[in-house]
Amino acid sequence: MEPGKLPNDILNKIVFGKINTFRKEVIMRPGIGEDCAAIEFDKYACVMSTDPITAAGKNAGRLAVHISCNDIASSGVEPLGLMVTILCPVGTTETELEHLMDQVCETAGQLNVEIIGGHTEVTPAVNKIILSTTCVGKSLKDKIISSSGAKPGDSVILTKSAGLEGTAIIAGDFEEELAEVMNKNELQYAKSLINAISVVPEGVLAGRFGVTSMHDITEGGVLGAAWEIAEASSTGVTIKKDSIPVEPVTRHICDHFGINPLRLISSGCMIITCKDGEGLVRLLGENNIKASIIGTITQNKTGRLLISEKEGTSENIEAPGADELYKIIK
Known about the structure:
Radius of gyration: 19 Å
Distance between the termini: 14 Å
CATH topology of the largest domain: Phosphoribosyl-aminoimidazole Synthetase, Chain A, domain 2
Number of domains: 2
């Protein structure tokens, strides 16, 4: 199998298809495009999500906190606790581990999230540090937003710009190579995007506003997330390529490595669907969060299109495969 998330057909067959025990207390279950699970406790629910960091180097601690907290926020819920598992290869120094934990604790503190447990060990089973985080949040059970609620006619909103996380990872891990094709200010700005990869503010705001679905954009990028929202909701989607914001530094980096920014890992960006797209964009803007309407949810379940008026093109949006980031890591 190729690096990255499992293809959806394999995920359904080998992972989801093997689950055979179901509890009535579980009110949100695994599915394509679904970021979280939720367990009912009377009128409240405990919302949970877990993710590993395997492809990042210098900013692994920061990313680990953000990606799990972002998943909770994609349910319209504020994250409150984080469990952290760290697997270190033999030979890892105390300094390396301390640096990682400094990142984890600093980032969690910025989000007002407590580290509530986890596990740390040194093992010959890994050849680099593997960091996995599980985040929990609490919500009234009838206020949880899923990825499967998009409705035909909804606007598709993107926060920030495509490829944020991938840009920051590549700029940090390939700094020497990029210094030959980018100036110092461009490279510094690209690396600074690591500070923009939380979607907790927009997730909580959108949840209060009233939206039909939300999805944190991770592996597979904007197009992968759009496909997953449509798949989870049994709808179609039309995305306007010309309306998708992409930072100039992201285009520069992607052009250099020959990768597609719309298929690049994009934590820090969220896809949101709702009836009043303009109202939500206005609310987010009032709270200093950039947002753009990039498409529409459609009735046709098999119609998932990327169109460009500038280029005069129309193409099918395919299910997400291995993220563009892995082309560089290879």
